[in-house]
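Sequence, please.
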């Protein structure tokens, strides 16, 4: 994805040998959101698919930590996706304001989304294509479907 002047949007690709190999890639991709800034700020979004592949429970690349911890101040929204929520670093989940769940069945994953405020029975019963979203600040909940 190319960054246009005044706008940066990145999608981080992943690979299985984590996280050492990715540190250099992250250092190239993630800071773009902080460097490419117009005079008036425009909100930007960075999508990190299967975020557990880019960090461990003990370590996170500096560039990802910067996005997680100071992204809001820089008008950078971070969207992290995973099918293994129990492998996501607590620094990421601690900064999250929303939790969107599709059907999960794996016990460790269910335990983690319960810790984050999800209703386990509801998450386990979700039909294919439906999701439930929780606002972790207000306690609000939204159920919908994508197909």
């Amino acid at each position: 994805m190319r960054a246009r002047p005044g706008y940066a949007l990145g999608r981080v690709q992943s690979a299985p040998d984590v996280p050492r190999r990715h540190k250099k890639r992250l250092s190239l991709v993630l800071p773009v959101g902080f460097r490419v800034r117009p005079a008036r700020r425009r909100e930007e979004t960075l999508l990190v698919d299967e975020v557990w592949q880019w960090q461990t429970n003990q370590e996170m690349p500096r560039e990802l930590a910067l996005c997680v911890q100071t992204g809001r101040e820089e008008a950078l929204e971070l969207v992290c996706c995973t099918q293994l929520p129990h492998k996501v670093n607590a620094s990421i989940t601690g900064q999250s304001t929303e939790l969107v769940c599709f059907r999960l069945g794996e016990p460790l994953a269910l335990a983690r989304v319960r810790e984050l405020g999800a209703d386990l029975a509801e998450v386990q019963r979700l039909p294919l294509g439906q999701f439930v979203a929780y606002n972790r600040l207000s306690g609000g909940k939204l159920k919908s479907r994508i197909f």
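The beta strands are 10-12, 44-48, 76-80, 98-101, 130-135, 141-145.
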